[in-house]
Amino acid sequence: MGNSGSAVKVCTDHQGGINWLSLSPDGQRLLTGSEDGTARLWSTADSQCHGHFQGHESYITFCHLENEAAFTCSADHTIRKWDVVTGQCLAIYRGHTSIVNRILVAKDYLFSGSYDRTARCWSVDKEKQIQEFRGHRNCVLTLAHYSSRDVLEEEEEEEEEERVSRDLLVTGSTDCTVKVWWVSSGRCYQTLLGHTGAVLCLILDAPNRELFSGSTDYTIRTWNIVTGEQLKVFKEHQGSVICLELVNRHLYSGSADRTVKCWLVDTGERIQTYKAHKHSVSTLKYHAGILFTGSGDACARAFNSKSGVLQKIFRGHKFIINCIQVHNELLYTASHDGTLRIWDIRGICKRNKRRLKKERSVQGRSSQKGSLSRLFNNKVGCMVQQENGE
């Protein structure tokens, strides 16, 4: 394992901590939202700042980037939409009465969750509130969205009451519950009970009808999003579960206990623990067999996702790393120290590709040996049968 030395580039334009980092779907731009009340747009081609979005009256808590528009939410109780080319504010969404924690853009909808105990749905284009989801007893921290078409069979769909829209919103709250809502009516479809602490993170696997929730009660819980049934409880963490990542039926969980754990979703078995963090694990990102983590110890790390071996430590930040992104073999880390740092991970990626290629080759030879062995055993069996006159 080697240490990284210094970053390829350090971007110091923000005057306050960076709370979130979003990558556009086409991979051409990054958006950072900061404690300084502004958002900045960065090109992944030259790592330069190409946009400065000003207008919020307090710090930005979260941001989301589409190819043509940027969205930010703030402690000033509002959400803003920005033109990524001109930097112009295109819309201000008003209605929340406290800090807006999270936003989610899906289809023509903009969803938001707030300390005012509500989630809301807005028309992206018309700048107006479509629906309010009221029922949580405390602040809404995390959001997910899906359509019943993604999870229900045709005959099940016909039985559903909601004919106009089959979109559903999932909310996680500090009141220890997860709620599922019909977007069209604002009606609560299900309340998922079981956590005994605040729900900090959600991951949705709609094709498999599963929802994963992480909590300050140290557990991750899996739910059937059609029936509301609790399927499994993952219990090995010794601290709050802060972040989740789901890849190929492997669930990665980052915790305040300074570890990441990998679980097999289908069995609930914990198959790997990634250690070496000196503080809480605040963010996770899986990329090509490598697990990247950001921590409260101001370091990012790269682990071999299969073996759990620590491959590299990225040092340079002064405070907690709040968010990470990976694009074109570059690692982007955004920190509460106000900097965006860019790291070259080509070496790690190449080593990992060689390792995967070698493993596949070994597996291929093993499989071939197994086939030859079975063929040999079959022949021996036939000879024995012939000798016995069978």
Protein architecture, described:
The protein has a domain at about 10-95: Lipocalin, CATH 2.40.128.630. Helix content is about 10%, strand content about 50%. The protein has two helices and 33 strands. It has helices at about 155-160, 345-385; strands spanning about 1-5, 10, 20-25, 30-35, 40-45, 50-55, 60-65, 70-75, 80-85, 90-95, 100-105, 110-115, 120-125, 130-135, 140-145, 165-175, 180, 190, 200-205, 210-215, 220-225, 230-235, 240-245, 250-255, 260-265, 270-275, 280-285, 290-295, 300-305, 310-315, 320-325, 330-335, 340-345. Strand 32 (about 330-335) and strand 33 (about 340-345) form a beta hairpin. It is globular and about 55 Å long. The model is unreliable at about 155-165 and about 370-390 (pLDDT under 50). Keywords: Repeat, WD repeat.
- Low-confidence parts, pLDDT < 50 over ≥5 residues? 157-164, 369-390
| Number of DSSP-assigned strands | 33
Question: What is the arithmetic mean of pLDDT?
Answer: 90
Give the strand order, joined by hyphens, for the main sheet: 1-30-29-28-27
Count the DSSP helices.
2
What would you say the CATH architecture of the domain at 11-94 is?
Beta Barrel
User: Any idea of the CATH class of the domain at 11-94?
Assistant: Mainly Beta
Helix/strand/pairing class, anyone? mainly beta
Main sheet? Answer: 5 strands, mixed
WD repeats: 11-43, 93-132, 168-191, 192-233, 234-273, 314-346
Keywords: Repeat, WD repeat
Protein name: WDR86 protein
